[in-house]
Design a protein that fits this description.
It is built from five helices and no strands. It is mainly alpha-helical.
């Protein structure tokens, strides 16, 4: 299984801003998992909620950055990716609500993060990495 606590050069999309945002998101996913209660009957604490808010905020900012870049490429890439972002945001909110209610455990949330990371970052994002690298850096 993918380790969420280690950035690897193979994760790079070749764009400094996006790669740094991806590094932060990877770390925040790992933090959220580490701060989850062991027992489903326990409510997540203040530190988990802080990590949750930070994760949601950073994801929103990352998606905005990525969509600004993709808009410059034109075509259907932007719209498809924007819809992926909306779907993921809804799913993440649902998962985090379920964590708060004690309905899902750490393994379920980790599986969700890993599936997002491999499906979205390593596949969808990397599919446009060559085109993104050709966008002038000052437009980000």
């Amino acid at each position: 299984m993918l380790e969420l606590n280690h950035w690897k050069s193979s994760y790079s999309v070749g764009h400094w801003v996006l790669d740094n945002q991806h590094r932060v998101l990877l770390s925040l996913c790992a933090d959220a998992l580490d701060l989850m209660p062991e027992d489903l009957s326990e409510k997540p604490g203040h530190r988990f909620h802080h990590a949750q808010e930070e994760l949601l905020s950073c994801i929103e900012e990352h998606f905005k950055t990525e969509e600004r870049l993709l808009k410059q490429l034109g075509g259907s890439v932007y719209e498809h990716h924007r819809l992926e972002h909306q779907g993921f945001s809804r799913q993440l909110s649902n998962y985090l609500d379920q964590v708060d209610k004690g309905e899902i455990d750490r393994d379920s949330l980790q599986t969700f993060f890993v599936e997002w990371w491999t499906g979205h970052i390593l596949n969808s994002d990397r599919a446009f990495s060559n085109a993104i690298q050709r966008i002038p850096k000052m437009t980000t």
